[in-house]
Write a structure and sequence with these properties.
alpha/beta, Rossmann fold, 7 helices
């Protein structure tokens, strides 16, 4: 299993007042490997939890989060995903694309509504861990 962190997991973990805080903490406690993510997810998380940037950078520094650069190499596949799903945001496209690039990917997200619709490699459901 290769866990991928969406912003909902990180927001829940970093914000004690978030409704998914306990779930996110359980996820981190149960994982014994680094989570993969991208800069877009980090930026979205920092936007949603103002002031969390230093904590996110510490998670990257410690290796808790492994950041995969998506641009410019993945620009065409990301554009294709965002064209296919009209309202898909950039961070979600990056997470879906990461799930395509990583064998045995599992996405940790609170966004069950959207991620149950998104497909990787055209028709394949994305394996999810949700609250």
């Amino acid at each position: 299993m290769k866990p991928i962190a969406d912003s909902g997991l990180l927001v829940g973990f970093l914000d004690p007042s978030d409704q998914y805080h306990a779930w996110a903490c359980q996820c981190f406690d149960g994982l014994h490997t680094a989570l993969t993510t991208c800069e877009a997810v980090l930026a979205e998380t920092e936007y949603l939890v103002p002031g969390s940037g230093p904590d996110l950078m510490e998670m990257v520094r410690r290796g808790t989060l492994q950041v995969v650069a998506m641009l410019p190499d993945q620009a065409a596949p990301l554009a294709a995903l965002m064209s296919r799903y009209e309202k898909m945001q950039f961070a979600d496209a990056c997470v879906v694309r990461l799930s395509e690039l990583l064998p045995q990917a599992v996405v940790y997200t609170t966004d069950k509504r959207d991620f149950l619709i998104y497909r990787r490699r055209g028709r394949e459901m994305i394996k999810l861990v949700t609250p």
